[in-house]
């Protein structure tokens, strides 16, 4: 068997909230660090409330990102507004960092008429054209070649921008992973392939996903840069994406970043992880390594954060969220016949016919 190059896992802030000896610490203004920590907490408030909302039958589905927040919050922060983001689905923090309002996020979960997708997708398929945040799509991996192609387009147009896509380690088994990385490698597209290796693809553990030593090493086969980082370390995430961005813009091609993290939540509201993993043995060690603990320790040591501030901030997030939920629940549902809009300038005859059938049906049912 060919020998894979050794790729060390880069860590900058350790689990005790201390900088690793000799690590080059990326420059991040203190106010930004506080704001990023607040975004991580906000994601937690949203995740925990929306999970319960699903259990109450008020939304149909939800996916939490407990334990993985540093990956998406940090990666989105390291980008510039002109860069494009192609999410998988478990990266709501990236949407918040980009500026997606809580109201728009919640509207999407309800699929109401205030939803930018006009109620056409299941919950957790958020996105925003105005924010260069491509809408989540359900089939795994489709975002990877889309990101590669978009990045190549940016290169041709000589834009000062890159495209970053998030995906899980499970998604690296899709053919689209190969197509995307191969294309980006050949054309030196300014793309960043950000893999959240959270250990699980629903119930499939990483060792059943690939025979490869790790995910980052696969970069070698595409002739691109591959790095492994501690994905629960916000500093390492920011540093790796900044470096990948600089390389990409210099014309040095794409980077595959493997961020090691752990899915402490269930896969989704439709999943029960107790059926396939042990809370003590599998999750236990990761509960101590999750990203908020070390960041909180660091900020407190630097006198930038306190327990009281955390309580107040969580209350503020909860209030903002409850207000957004109230608005969303009182916003009319998306109009069904909007299904026929936004695709064609002139609707083809068969779709016109179907649209009229739908309108007649709704009238007969007393819904119009
Ligand atoms: C092409 C395709 N196959 C299967 C699924 C069903 N599915 C949805 S999420 C998921 C697991 C993905 O795992 P991973 O990429 O590691 O992301 P994570 O959920 O861990 O964030 C699967 C198998 C799908 N949506 N699309
Ligand atoms: Mg996974």
Distinct small molecules: thiamine diphosphate, magnesium ion
Mean pLDDT rating: 97
Low-confidence stretches: none
Number of helices: 12
Class based on secondary structure composition and strand pairing: alpha/beta
CATH class of the largest domain: Alpha Beta
Quick one: biggest sheet?
6 strands, parallel
Overall shape: globular
Query: CATH homologous superfamily of the largest domain - what is it?
Result: Thiamin diphosphate (ThDP)-binding fold, Pyr/PP domains
Strand order of the main beta sheet, please? Answer: 1-7-8-4-3-2
Q: Helix amount, in percent? A: 40-55%
Radius of gyration computed on alpha carbons: 21 Å
**Beta-strand proportion:** 5-15%
Count of DSSP strands: 8
Order of helices and strands: EHHEHHHEHEEEHEHEHHHH
Distance between the termini: 67 Å
CATH topology of the largest domain: Rossmann fold
Architecture of the largest domain, CATH level 2? 3-Layer(aba) Sandwich
What number of structural domains do the residues give? Answer: 2
Strand-helix topology:
Elements: E1 9-10, H1 30-55, H2 69-78, E2 84-86, H3 92-98, H4 102-110, H5 143-156, E3 163-168, H6 175-186, E4 191-197, E5 200-201, E6 204-205, H7 219-222, E7 225-230, H8 234-250, E8 255-260, H9 279-287, H10 291-301, H11 307-329, H12 349-364
Bound molecules: thiamine diphosphate and magnesium ion.
